[in-house]
Amino acid sequence: MKAYILCLRLILIPFLLPVIGAAQKTVKTFPLSSLDLSKMKQTYGVPRVYHRGDEKQMTIAKKTFGYGVGTRIKSALWIDLARGADRFIADVGVDDDTTNIVFFTKQNFKVIGDGKKLWESGPMDLGDPSKHIDIDIRGIDTLVLTVVNAGDLSSYVQMDWAEPRFMISGKDPVAISAPEDKAVILTPKPRPVAQINGPKVYGCRPGSPFLYRIPATGTRPIRFSAKRLPAGLTLDDQTGIITGTLKKRGDYKVVLKAQNAAGTDTRAFTISCGDKLALTPPMGWNDWYTHFDNITDQKMRKAADLMEQNGMADVGYQYVNIDDCWMNATAVRHPGRVGPLRNAAGDIQPNSYFPDMKGMTDYIHAKGLKAGIYSSPGPTTCGGYGASAGHEEQDARQFANWGFDFLKYDWCSYSEVIGPGPYTSEQMQKPFRDMGKYLKEQQRDIIFNLCQYGMDSVWRWGAEAGHSWRTGADLGLDIDIFYDVAIKNALEYGSWSKPGGWNDPDYLQIGFLSNAPCKLSPTEQYSFMSLWCLLPSPLFYSGDMEKLDDFTLNILCNPEVIEVNQDRLGKPGIISGIDSTKETFVMVKELEDGSKAVGLCNQGLFPTEVTYKWAGDKKSKRQAVRDLWRQQDKGIFQNEFTTTVPARGVALIKVSNQQAQLICCH
Ligand code: GAL
Predict the structure, then answer these.
(1) Phi, psi of 214 (to 5 degrees)
(2) β 75-80/58-60 pair status
(3) Is the CB of 91 under 6 A from ligand 1?
């Protein structure tokens, strides 16, 4: 018997050892909230931690959880596990607390381990029962917990990691920062040889003062000339500024020439004199996201000086636009901006920071640049300053007399004129149609920008009133929603944008804004510009002109990238290859020369390969690919082009048949 027991023991020893070993290996529970959650990045607000016994408990579809971490998209927490964790366990879902929801779309939870997706919830809606995660994470070094939108736009809703915990047998996990994204300058410096940039077509109206500064890079002095410049126009050969007036309608096919010590460039340029303006998306600067209610005449002049000096005007930026707060108000925080809204004749009154409106526009015009102004159809602007209600025609005349070339007209307090909503289409359109008509009656070419945040599907009728229209709410300073905004634009209303009338998803907010560097990573800043060029959107920089660094200028001033935006066909960027997670896709824009500008887009948190496949006949199978940011030919490719796109990046390329490549890019 003894021998039998001994024998049994011996047999069992190999099986019992791991059990004994496992019993010795202590596995402990480590709640997610024990990490340094200040490392958790989210677009809106900060994470909210719930503890057992808190007065307000975390609930998902009415189920209560003892503890957890609530976050808002786009949310990502990077965690160093040092291979010490065994399992990650949690429940996830949309929090039942719907206070603060501005708009809501479905959201997607993901757990990513060493760059690979380990778990994904799929789109989750408000009221959906929570989903349970219990995954093996042994051997993983870096874990990322992320929540991104799986609908159209971002939302302010809270997403819950409920009872989230690690089972660990090694070192404690540590929250870490996302990998650093270095600001690399991709755009080569302009070559010394003279090069003409900007649009190839320009619209004006008969009888209006004409003003166009030929955008050109290259070492100055540059000597400008133009073949077949129509009668009525004069070109200053030193500055490249064309002025005068055209009497007769028609398309004037001019050849512009720029020459300097290093060489010569010519460019076919059509001056189209008729009713249409903004034949390519307007480009310029608007002060809003830098100066808000601190804007002054001096700052506007300074912005014009800088646009002329820093190279922006040389690649096509033209408008220098004041936003809100230039007029008097009845009560605002700056005494120098308080005063009568109108004089006895009913003329709108600029505040003391704008002592000479005509002097200011003359100053801007002398540089070949243009000036923009702002008002609202309501009694006051959004900032509470005097606006145009009841004086629309008089203001249109005043803006023209002051010499403005652009008006942004912002809905703001218009409901005070028509009472509380809901409104009919006619009510929503009327103030913009009226002002559009008054502006057209002026003997000045004034670009009219409708700012009513997309109401009544403005893209459907905006071109009947003006030249561009804001498609949604302000991007604000938390701008990492730019990617979603661009996708929505392209998928839903991109095709309404055309020469003469453009979707406007708000300003380019890169570089230094409102006293702080923008919150976007360097890669995201390239993506912002790439997407705005592909849509194509008006290109208005709204950062601080006085703090423009080389990195930001390299993004703003790449002529090959801008050419995508300014292409004469004005075709919208079309998205393909997108799924419900909207992580990778391509955006393709047809260009006038038969080639295509293509954005290979990666909204995800990790670099990934994105492929653009071109279809077509035998001849088009071989295509030349050019990297537009680096201004480098990548070579000839068969059927498709694949590249690794950085996290949140866009690789912007031009794809042309070889013949087109030879013609376009010497
Ligand atoms: C908002 C508008 C902004 C800015 C601001 C000025 O309504 O969308 O772009 O113009 O008003 O108060």
Answers:
(1) -65, 115
(2) unpaired
(3) no
CA neighbor of 307 nearest in space, from 553, 566, 545, 540: 545
Do 162 and 47 fall into the same domain?
yes
The number of distinct structural domains making up the chain is: 4
Is the domain of 463 the same as that of 592?
Answer: no
Same-domain pairing of 269 and 289: no
> Do 62 and 160 lie in a common domain?
yes
Q: State whether 450 and 503 are in the same domain.
A: yes
Cα separation, 354 vs 327, whole angstroms: 8
| Alpha helices (H) along 457-505 | 462-465, 482-488
3-state secondary structure of 515: coil
| pLDDT band of 21, cuts 50, 70, 90 | very low
Query: What tokens appear for 114 in the block?
Result: 């060493």
Q: Are residues 434 and 306 in the same domain?
A: yes
Q: Does residue 384's CB lie within 6 angstroms of at least one atom of ligand 1?
A: no
Which residue is catalytic, options 314, 405, 410, 567? 410
The residue with tokens 């070419």 is 445
How many angstroms separate the CA atoms of 300 and 321, rounded?
8
pTM, 2 dp = 0.89
**Is residue 615 classed exposed, middle or buried when 0-12, 13-18 and 19+ CB atoms within 10 A define those classes?**
exposed
Question: Cβ(129)–Cβ(93) under 8 Å?
Answer: yes
Torsions phi, psi of 635, nearest 5? 125, -170
Render pLDDT for 577-625 as a digit per residue (tens, 0 to 9).
887 667 899 999 999 999 999 999 998 888 999 999 997 656 668 999 9
Q: Known catalytic residue: 617?
A: no
268-283 per-position pLDDT tens digit: 999 999 999 999 999 9
Q: Please state, in angstroms and rounded to a whole number, the distance separating the CA atoms of residues 492 and 485.
A: 10
